[in-house]
């Protein structure tokens, strides 16, 4: 394959962590070199008959006219759409998925790249003096560049990067609605469009009729799951509403369920009850204490944004889900925000009196607030923040987060008419889009992963439902009472309430359990048994840090990055600490060290 033949070079690289495209700068046409990691995400290719157009998908997508979830079918339809109306036609044709899509247009001598509408699948670019790189893993594009000190501090503070685009100053991440355009004959002239977020309709135009909302959403969910045939599928089943919705719609299909047993919650008990009620079974398994070192390869190659090993239970779930090689994994990620009205937990008692919330009189129509006010209210909305770093780093991170969040709120103003809209979109941006890498996106390295709540039609429909209907599971409960009444008396694990309760009873139950958890958290640790809820992972963190195999693994990666940490002013933790925040910091330092050092020999 040569440049004169105008052919695309595809090669495998054992040192790569993901898929990336390289274009060397020079005179005349520069045909891209496509690099596929041996152990990373597997791209899907589609080329037209004239070999003038090539589409490459990393992750999973599906077109609106596609009859199935098979990526190749959708890519062929997207190629047709591109031929008719260009990139705008491609965007309109895509119905959903978490993906990075690359379009090599030989006829017009250009390369285009986009990500899904919330930018869940990481997409990075870097343009240097001699080469332009575009790919899904920031470490492939760094090319010897050292991470910035402040980005490392932010990672250790949150367990991922909510504000920095990457760990590296020259590696940029593509945001929601953005696209990359690169002329193949001038590969140094990379253009990136402006961010473009989904827009909420005006409050007075939103759906307020509960029955109409249920009928509309039920039709959309039915159409979504109808794309599945008789292929094998797998899904995790927790104690929450999102996963049981998936199980209910797929009970007649070839579905396999699994549940991890969190010792401090009732997740497994609730999940078993859901499964039995639906005529199914769920495999309950224990998360191994050595999960961080055991699943280090999944973490290294599956996580493009750099999430932390503190979430290693996700890879234990992945191992169980893929045991029988399913065609698809289905995940309910961020359904609690998209349909369940998770914004409510960031707003309660802020602009609605408690009695109105309990009685269901909350309306959530307060206008947007100044950007700085969202800092405090989202303190837990973009990851678990710890303050165990030296004071000067804590202060630097606070300055960075204030600047970034204020700028983001300004960009979102035209999309979010109300305060509740703004909170919800910020949750999508941080909790949804950025933290997805540790869940569904990393799952795609092993199997195509679907998420109904990232379906464009379902997502848009939920945005068009009045906040008063969605707040605090109000619509979700009504949906279960009407569509799946057999599940309506099974409690939601983290609230303790169940759909068959009336609104006041459900919210009083939630309030009682929330107060109870706060009281329990103030008790000595030895008195906290069964006091946590909602998939709390603190018990896993203690097991991870105390495990001898993990400790040896951590020491090995620390030994390879000791000088680099010292240059950044960070001291690696010599002993294994008893304090929970210090344990989290240790896991994040080990995660960062491993990401920076790359593959090491596992004992």
Automatic annotation (TrEMBL):
InterPro entries, per database record: Asn_synthase, ASN_synthetase/amidase, Ntn_hydrolases_N, Rossmann-like_a/b/a_fold
Biological or metabolic pathway of the protein: Amino-acid biosynthesis; L-asparagine biosynthesis; L-asparagine from L-aspartate (L-Gln route): step 1/1
Residue span, Asparagine synthetase domain: 229-467
Catalytic activity of the protein: L-aspartate + L-glutamine + ATP + H2O = L-asparagine + L-glutamate + AMP + diphosphate + H(+)
EC number: 6.3.5.4
Single GO MF annotation: asparagine synthase (glutamine-hydrolyzing) activity
Listed GO biological process terms: asparagine biosynthetic process
Name of the protein in its database record: asparagine synthase (glutamine-hydrolyzing)
Organism encoding this protein: Desulfurivibrio alkaliphilus (strain DSM 19089 / UNIQEM U267 / AHT2)
Upper classification of the organism: Bacteria, Pseudomonadati, Thermodesulfobacteriota, Desulfobulbia, Desulfobulbales
